[in-house]
Amino acid sequence: MKDERKETLVLGSDKVVFLEEMAKAYDLPDIGKAVRCLIDWAREHPEQHKDIFDEQRCLDC
Length: 61
Hints:
mainly alpha, 3 helices, 0% strand
């Protein structure tokens, strides 16, 4: 059995809408799966970590 933890994330409504759109577009069961896909991709591509995490973005400003 996987070592899993349930976590709560606080997301703006625009981020939730984006995840819902991605879940629908890729036939995922829910936005939680969409988030797990993003995390898995980031874990599989450590060479992209700087691009993903180093730059501060504010798409909501």
